[in-house]
Amino acid sequence: MVSDKSLTKGVAVNAQNRAKQGGSKLGCMLNFLLIGVIAAIGVKVFPVYYSNNQLAEAAEEIASRAANLNQDSIKAQIMEKAREFNITQALAPGAVTVSRVSSKDGGMCTVRISYEREINIYGFAAIKLSTNKEIAKPFMTSLI
Q: What residues form DSSP beta bridges with 131?
């Protein structure tokens, strides 16, 4: 025969188990919500971050060909890449500066890219992403 004491204990255990099950469902939903928020922010931030890196890589590649280009041509090519990657902030005056110093043995091409982009996070917040890159590439002016 089952005593009242063991019956009451069984009811209490069942109530605790039900409370734990609800807690795990709530925890799971909160985890999914957190993952969703992080993914939504990533969808907004990643393309901007990626295009900034693409522009820096393009500027480095263009600067490495400085022996065959003058300052204006280097800057024009970098500005064209900024248009291609839809980085309007890099088109502002002073955002891209190029200096090219050469001597009879060789030279140095220095490209500075400095701008700030604001990323709107679905109207709730804004993130400012600053880009300040300096690329210095040596070049040879003549091989003879």
A: 115
Residue 9 lies inside a defined structural domain of this protein: yes
Dump pLDDT digits (tens) for 43-91: 999 999 999 999 999 999 999 888 888 899 999 999 999 999 999 999 9
**Which residue type does 6 have?**
S
89 token code pair:
């902030």
Q: How far is it, in rounded angstroms, from Cα 74 to Cα 59?
A: 8
Q: How many residues does the chain have?
A: 144
Q: Which of 110, 107, 106 is nearest to 133 (CA)?
A: 110
Range of the domain at 128: 4-139
Neighbours of 116 (CB within 10 A): 12
Q: Among all chains, which residue has been given the structure tokens 């263009």?
A: 62
What whole-number distance in Å separates Cα of residue 10 and Cα of residue 48?
Answer: 58
User: In this structure, is residue 144 part of a structural domain?
Assistant: no
Beginning with the edge strand found earlier in the chain, give each strand of the sheet holding 96-102 in spatial order.
96-102, 107-121, 125-139
User: Total structural domains in the chain?
Assistant: 1
C-alpha to C-alpha distance for 124 and 8, rounded to whole angstroms? 51
Helix axes of 71-84 and 4-64: crossing angle, nearest 10 degrees = 150
